[in-house]
Amino acid sequence: QDTVEAVRSRGVLRIPGILNEDPYFNKDPRTGEWRGFAVEMARDIASTLGVKLEVVESSWPNSILDVQSGKADLAFGITATPQRALSVAFSAPTYFNSFVIVSPNPELAKLSWAELNDPKYTFAVDMGSSQDLISQQYLPKAKVLRFKSRDEAIVAVVSGKAVGLVNTMLNGLVMTKKTDAIGRVMVPQPVLSTPSVVAMNYGTDEKWKAFISAWAEYNRRIGNNQTWIVKSLEPFGITLDDMPEGVGFGG
Amino acid sequence: MSVASPAAADTILEARGIAKSFGQLPVLKGIDLALTAGEVVSIIGPSGSGKSTFIRCMNMLERPDAGEIRFRGRRVGARFADHGAEIGQGTLRRHVGMVFQHFNLFPHRTVLQNVTEGPTVVLGQSQKEAEAVAMDYLAQVGLADKRDAWPAQLSGGQKQRVAIARALAMQPDALLLDEVTSALDPELVGEVLGVVRRLADQGMTMAIVTHEISFAAEVSDRVVFMEGGVIAAEGSPQEICREPRHERLKAFLARFNA
Amino acid sequence: MSVASPAAADTILEARGIAKSFGQLPVLKGIDLALTAGEVVSIIGPSGSGKSTFIRCMNMLERPDAGEIRFRGRRVGARFADHGAEIGQGTLRRHVGMVFQHFNLFPHRTVLQNVTEGPTVVLGQSQKEAEAVAMDYLAQVGLADKRDAWPAQLSGGQKQRVAIARALAMQPDALLLDEVTSALDPELVGEVLGVVRRLADQGMTMAIVTHEISFAAEVSDRVVFMEGGVIAAEGSPQEICREPRHERLKAFLARFNA
Amino acid sequence: MYSWSFFPIFQASDLFLWGLWVTVVYTFGSIVLGLVLGLALCFCRLSGNRALDWVAQGFQELFRCTPLLVQLLWFYYALPLLLGIDIDNHVAAMATLSLYAAAFYAEIFRGGILSIAKGQSEAGAAIGMSKAQIMRRIVLPQASRRMLPAFINQSVIQFKNTSLISVISVADLAYMASVVNGQTYRPLESYTAVAVLYFVILFPLTRLADYIERRLRVSE
Amino acid sequence: MYSWSFFPIFQASDLFLWGLWVTVVYTFGSIVLGLVLGLALCFCRLSGNRALDWVAQGFQELFRCTPLLVQLLWFYYALPLLLGIDIDNHVAAMATLSLYAAAFYAEIFRGGILSIAKGQSEAGAAIGMSKAQIMRRIVLPQASRRMLPAFINQSVIQFKNTSLISVISVADLAYMASVVNGQTYRPLESYTAVAVLYFVILFPLTRLADYIERRLRVSE
Ligand SMILES: Nc1ncnc2c1ncn2[C@@H]1O[C@H](COP(=O)(O)OP(=O)(O)OP(=O)(O)O)[C@@H](O)[C@H]1O
Ligand SMILES: Nc1ncnc2c1ncn2[C@@H]1O[C@H](COP(=O)(O)OP(=O)(O)OP(=O)(O)O)[C@@H](O)[C@H]1O
Ligand SMILES: [Mg+2]
Ligand SMILES: [Mg+2]
């Protein structure tokens, strides 16, 4: 029995959802309702398959465990790297994510990644995330504080423990709208963007992988993915105009 | 070996060839002793001679390595319950009471509850019945007014008298006493010995381990002198305590008059 | 009040009007007692009469509520060190030894180390010097061969003899003994009393709390009968132990012949 | 200078209280289960049966020598894979907490039982009581009194440990604090609120344990 | 079925070993500091001075009744704001761990000292020793023997607690596990590796504590 059949006979498609990860995911703790563009994407896949969507609550590192351990069928918002590809299967890109610095210090605005790579700067990042990988690669000389969650990284910047934080464009935009003290989004040169993909169990059958990849490719090309993303940013008062010059999702 | 005992019909408790080692240390090397109904036997001897170990073997609190204990002619087995021709340790202990040097009262029970514990839990008496009997025995040891006290509120002598009442409430056929006055203030020794003396007068069958030589001489029908895990001398109080002939017995008794 | 004592010049240790309560309970109600050089005073009395409390006041292990302790005519103050005309508790205890009912040997020190602890740490003797003195006293109590044993390896009687040697190694002017045989097996009492008797013969000044009436009668120059926190009778051993006239003293002594 | 503002915390007080309730339920549930299981473990240790003793001891060591955090992740993710079954995060949280508590409780129980003087069992035996009767009527009542302070202290630790179940997404108090963080970016205030809630509950318990311990010390 | 692969973990073994080293350093450092501070706290408790006793007790309760996680966050974020100074995460981690350990050690020390029979102090006093001499030469040597098992057990807990300093970004073993997770997406394997490392270090320690405890029980 292949995965498509399995999901259909189960009647639900399961994905891991993460708390406080606007615009990807968020859950209303009072009603238990999920929102975010990753949820919208999953809902589209579910309706394509004619099943219902179930969100299993998780965290960034654990969402991989969820697909590896079969607690979920797909994990969204995953940055594909070759090393990670040895542990889970990845779909074609759903969109492209750019990496940014968020800082209250305007002096950083003009600096490139190479100039930021200096021991006099301390950056905060959430542990094990794709931005963590980016900072390991591009900011090896700078001081990097790694925290369990994005929120703690934000607090580190707000309380002056770090000059700024490294994160993705999407997260950065939301954070600056939520709290002024974090400063503003800056895009150091060169613009780094990595594909965001859907992760699946390593042993999944080819049919399922092909289906998910086809879904991702199609919706990225046709602009549906961008639409879902932009829609998820609306509640925060962010529009495409807020995006820095030369940055997009299409890759 | 036949189950019926060849000993006299009125033998209550009998030890035959009891031997016991702790690890490499042989403590008892074959001890025979029979308690006849109504008899009071005192066991004296130097510290470490095995008196406690022996008297504990008599009700199987210590399992002998060799030899056997017989109660009213029936062999006591290794199990708690009766098993075939052998009687169980539970049965033995129900009929043979024991009083310890350190009282071992149950600190979480009142005086009365200490005494009724055995009759209600082991003999299945009703609470009311057990309390009536218990009050009887508490009165006998002069502690009826302490019925609701906690053990911690009693003096050593009072504790020991409660412990005796607790043993008596099981209405045992024989009583084993292991240095019941050694842990007491000298002043309080008298009150406990008084109770034991009265029990002897009433005809209770008893084995008494004691260092109170003059008390032993006065109250016993027979005195046993243990040394090095064997019975070294045995006889009437007169023979053992007043006119000792055995050399080491003489030396032992001499130390008490230092 | 003048610091020089009006008592006889050869008074070593003197208690004047000692009173002490524990919470609401008055335990000592004004006790006077003087120990003359070379004198042996025994203190007897029923349990709870305050004997231990009093003897502990004598070296300030228990702080009296009222009254004073004088050592060789000098008042003992509340501090550890000497202070003006008053001598400190440290000085008092350096000159007045104490032996306890439960030995209180230091379990983490060998026999020899137990005895040298005071001389080296308190008197500042060298290790070698202290050991020589210690071996002397261990020999006196008959335990020279146990020098390297641990307290746990000794019998009760041996422990108590080490405790006496430990007190003697401080070369005290007087010794306080609180029921030093009460925790011992009856057989082992003799060896400890023997040591105490020899000390008395050698002229050691001692106050002895004891329940061994006949020993007290034999060894003491004076016997004190305490009851209810006061000295109820006092006199020669003959007067107190053999021909008691005081009513309660008679009742007390009678209990030992129960 | 940081400007404190507890207003957003008060606004979210329903979440905090709900999280507290979840924490209490998991703590209490795992204490009860841990108690039962710990008693079983303790009897295995004292059974005199070598195999049972070893198995129980191995179990205890496993839980004593690894961080609870790692145990939670293991139970939720790895065990289902090994057994080929599905384990819900609520079940995993309760089970891990209970097993962890059991490992520590068993040691407390064992110590308590062993601390009851042999003379007590012998006095029971001497009036003809069976081993089970002695355990139930003589040893356990005394042991339980004596181990009560250690038991309460371990339960206080258990209460604090429950904060870790948020890593497998059980919505306890710590979880709610991060939810509120994410909404308000007031982590100092929300962690302060959490600390105060913990303190208000646990302080009386540690006082109680100290009080009982002092009373036992006097009465013995 | 999950396919296990420990290869990426072996590739990152330098990170794990470095993290282990950091964990050991923080554990050991906080044990030493906690010991010193705990001893001081314990003496405050036993000083007979009411004010000192209360302050020490209040301090202990504060640390006993709130989760270490919350304390770490507080020390790192809130305290610097309150004091207007900068506290490095390494300093905050070491300080919090040490204070936490001190609160628990103090209780162990106090119990150990109180458990030494009064007769021992009196025997020391009776040969003229001062209070300090009695404490140093008579009480502490005996108490330290007796509290050694509890001390080791608390230190095992301390070792496990050190895993929490990763929340303020100190690169301990748990931190390295997350870093490797992020790189390789092999969380089961990396958590397993962490569990094994903890177990390998802590198991001998708990055995040692049990052994000493058994020996003490026999010798007393
Ligand atoms: N449970 C035990 N384990 C090991 N050795 C023991 C045990 N019980 C007793 N012994 C040893 O057996 C010997 C005899 O002990 P027992 O208590 O029977 O002597 P006793 O005659 O009663 O002496 P006492 O007059 O001091 O009570 C002693 O050497 C003692 O150390
Ligand atoms: N530390 C204490 N706290 C409270 N009460 C005490 C304390 N020490 C002694 N007592 C009480 O003081 C009274 C006298 O005690 P003390 O030990 O001096 O009597 P004693 O004459 O030595 O008796 P015994 O012959 O039993 O040793 C007793 O009622 C005792 O309970
Ligand atoms: Mg004996
Ligand atoms: Mg006394």
Automatic annotation (TrEMBL), chains B, C:
Is ATP-binding there in the keyword field?
A: yes
One of the record's GO cellular component terms: plasma membrane
Question: Domain of life, per the record?
Answer: Bacteria
The record's annotation in Pfam families points to: ABC_tran
Q: Does the keyword GTP-binding apply?
A: no
**Protein keywords:** ATP-binding, Cell membrane, Membrane, Nucleotide-binding, Transport
Q: Locate the ABC transporter domain: which residues? A: 13-253
InterPro entries found in the cross-reference section: AAA+_ATPase, ABC_ATPase_HisP-typ, ABC_transporter-like_ATP-bd, ABC_transporter-like_CS, MetN_ABC_transporter-like, P-loop_NTPase
Compartment(s): Cell membrane
Q: Please give one Gene Ontology molecular function term for this protein.
A: ATP binding
**Could you tell me the membrane topology recorded for this protein?**
Peripheral membrane protein
Q: Which family does it belong to?
A: Belongs to the ABC transporter superfamily.
Q: This protein is called what? A: Polar amino acid transport system ATP-binding protein
TrEMBL record, chains D, E:
Task: Give compartment(s).
Answer: Cell inner membrane; Cell membrane
Q: Membrane-spanning residues where?
A: 20-44, 65-85, 91-109, 164-185, 191-209
Q: Name one Pfam family in it.
A: BPD_transp_1
Q: Which PROSITE patterns match?
A: ABC_TM1
The record's note on quaternary structure and interaction partners says:
The complex is composed of two ATP-binding proteins (GltL), two transmembrane proteins (GltJ and GltK) and a solute-binding protein (GltI).
Query: What are this entry's molecular-function GO terms?
Result: transmembrane transporter activity
Stored InterPro entries: AA_ABC_transptr_permease_3TM, ArtM/GltK/GlnP/TcyL/YhdX-like, MetI-like, MetI-like_sf
Primary localisation category: membrane
Q: Would the keyword Cell membrane turn up in this protein's UniProt record?
A: yes
Look up the record and report any one GO term of the cellular component aspect: ATP-binding cassette (ABC) transporter complex
Reply yes or no: does the keyword Amino-acid biosynthesis apply.
no
Which PANTHER family does the record cross-reference, listed alphabetically? Answer: GLUTAMINE TRANSPORT SYSTEM PERMEASE PROTEIN GLNP (PTHR30614:SF20), MEMBRANE COMPONENT OF AMINO ACID ABC TRANSPORTER (PTHR30614)
Family according to the record: Belongs to the binding-protein-dependent transport system permease family. HisMQ subfamily.
Q: Which UniProt keywords apply?
A: Amino-acid transport, Cell membrane, Membrane, Transmembrane, Transmembrane helix, Transport
Q: How does it sit in the membrane?
A: Multi-pass membrane protein
Question: What is known about what this protein does?
Answer: Part of the ABC transporter complex GltIJKL involved in glutamate and aspartate uptake. Probably responsible for the translocation of the substrate across the membrane.
Q: Which organism is it from?
A: Chelatococcus caeni
Q: Which GO terms describe its biological process?
A: amino acid transport
The residues covered by the ABC transmembrane type-1 domain are 20-209
> This chain belongs to which protein, by name?
Glutamate/aspartate import permease protein GltK
